[in-house]
Amino acid sequence: MVDTSDEWIVTRTGIRERRICDPGYATSDLAFSAAEKALAVSGVEASDLDLILVATVTPDMVFPSTACLLQARLGASKAAAFDISAGCTGFIYALTIADRFLTAGNYRYILVVAAETLSRITDYTDRNTCVLFGDGAGAMVLGKGTGANGVLSTHLGADGTGESLLYIPAGGSRMPATHQTIDDHLHYIRMQGNEVYRFAVTTIPECVTRVLEPVGISIDDVDHFIFHQANLRILQTAVKRMKIPWEKMLVNIERYGNMSAACIPLAVAEAVDDNLIHSGQLVLMVGFGAGLTMGSALVRWGR
Prior knowledge:
Blueprint: H1 6-13, H2 27-42, E1 51-55, H3 66-74, E2 80-84, H4 90-104, E3 109-117, H5 127-130, E4 135-143, E5 150-158, E6 166-167, H6 179-183, E7 190-191, H7 193-212, E8 224-227, H8 232-242, H9 253-256, H10 263-273, E9 282-289, E10 293-300
Parallel strand pairs: 1-2, 1-3, 8-9
Antiparallel strand pairs: 3-4, 5-10, 6-7, 9-10
Helix pairs in contact: 2-3, 7-8
């Protein structure tokens, strides 16, 4: 559909494969699968959940929230539920919110899900974007604890002046759907790639510093780094600037492409399954994306 090749895509992005949902699947279906696996691993029952957070820019519908649809399907009847729209930083935002609820309130278990069906909002006639985005989901169950493991520090930020660098023009109250907006492909992702690249390579080091300084931990002490999987060249440039050993990076963009908010939790899940992340290790996660938004979280892994 576009003038491209495997060599062109891999050279510029590092992406070799992407996952695309079958027709009829929605974001809540992916969220449900990820949530079931996370609950099974944690040993927590859905009925014990106090809150469900779903980070997504591709909800099943404008309202109700995908989190409410997930709550009903899980049978988590006592859980509050809401969505978070923070672009590719959505998981970091959700993780931060969950941490605050656990430390400041009477919540005991919180399910955090990041799920995206970006194939539904990708223009496959636009070479600049259609080779990047895939579908996926990841989930975590967070619980109130008293040990040394857990969320040690988070940092969130935003720069709304960059709203036009990565956005969907139509479909909201500013530009409701019409025959013309559909004909003009205004309901699909639009991105100024070079500007997003510059934003990302500047933002990542800043987010790393802002999350480490409050807890007095150095970059050398971190065992694993997981950055949003937007583009391999972004990751390579950021790592070079911060002098992070590449072997400390957890990278799966080659197999999945950019899954927005779902990138980080899916990378964590794979690393845990592959026995790469161990209890007591420090994991630093950084997200950046539409908004523009940015955020980071430092976690001492454990259950």
